Amino acid sequence: MKIVNLDSATTNPGDLSWDFLNNYADEVVIYQRTSPDEVVERAKGAEILIVNKTLLPAEVLNALSPELKYIGLQSTGYNVVDLNEATRLGITVCNIPSYSTNAVAQEVFACILGFSNLVELHSESVHNGEWCSCPDFCYWKAPLFELAGKTIGIIGFGTIGRRVAEIAQAFKMNILVYSRHEKDLSSFSCAHQVELDDLLYNSDIVTCHVPLTAETTGLINKETLSKMKSSAILINTSRGPVVNEAELAEALNSGRIAAAALDVLSEEPANSSNPLLTAKNCIITPHIAWAAKETRARLLSVLEENLRCWLEGKPQNKVN
Fold first, then answer.
1. How far apart are CA 128 and CA 122, in angstroms?
2. Distances from the Cα of 117 to the Cα of 78, 111, 143, 261, angstroms
3. Which regions in the chain score pLDDT beneath 50?
4. Which pLDDT score, from 0 to 100, does residue 77 have?
5. Among all residues, which ones are annotated catalytic?
6. What's the CA gap between 107 and 137, in Å, rounded?
7. Closest alpha carbon to 283 in 226, 228, 205
């Protein structure tokens, strides 16, 4: 049996190990990155293919059939694979759900605290000598604010959205939740499920935790942004295309909303022409919410378990 990993670099840049794959195949080939024109050549003859962001459209799947039997995703999202064609060809596709819940929720609050406490701004000013020349024992260069009593609006209430709510409750924030399905909020003392417009109108912070679908593409746009408070902060750690980036940039530059923080963009790596790169009060991180070593180690553990279960005829986390 042959296993090929087409893009290993981000999941494991060298601080973890792929050795476990040798327990399941006679031949294991690992590539750090694979360009679209290299996919078929590199994956040809593999029964098991492991990918992260490498695209596997119908024509590629057909070129790898009938040898290819299993695709192991190094991600929760599975839009890189043509699932209909994989199903038609009898190829099992498995993803990694819920591995990054703690890490993504942590990233959300790293961004929120970045705006509330402005630690980097004030540390830089101290190192530039401003505290040494200050006539008072303290100073602040911009308004600071407490999270207690503020309202956070959580769009999407799966495992990550719920974890964000749990942290928000610890900060004594008010919580508004928008979801297409009714959610059990009985474990929260100050959470309410509301319609999207109510959430947008009343939230001091809006954070997105929805999958990328036809319905959520461009969910944050000129119209929805116009319903937010002018003092509001937007956070997106879900998928880049959930946000209309040109319209968000316009909202930031015009002061329609106060600030935004994004860990994902519609095109990754970032395109230098993206208007958010030069927008006012916009934090952008390079898709790092999932990148903690513990998080990636958990991903590899589930990846192995998915593979083992499939080989035993009991596939788990199957998405097709």
1. 10
2. 37, 10, 9, 15
3. none
4. 87
5. 239, 268, 287
6. 32
7. 205
Q: For 163-191, b where at least 16 C-beta lie within 10 A, e where not — what string?
A: bbbebbbebebbbbbbbeeebebeebeeb
Q: How far apart are CA 234 and CA 260, in angstroms?
A: 5
What is the C-alpha separation between 224 and 236, in angstroms, rounded?
A: 14
DSSP string, 171-206: TT-EEEEE-SS----TT-SSEEE--HHHHHHH-SEE
Q: Can you tell me the distance from the alpha carbon of 296 to that of 10, in angstroms, rounded to the nearest whole number?
A: 9
Q: For residue 134, what are its two tokens?
A: 């200050």
Q: Crossing angle for the helix pair 101-117 and 293-311, nearest 10 degrees?
A: 160
What is the amino acid identity at position 235? I
- The one-letter code for the residue type at 159 is T
Digit-coded pLDDT (tens) for 123-151: 999 999 999 999 999 999 999 999 999 99
Under 8 Å between Cβ of 117 and 96: no
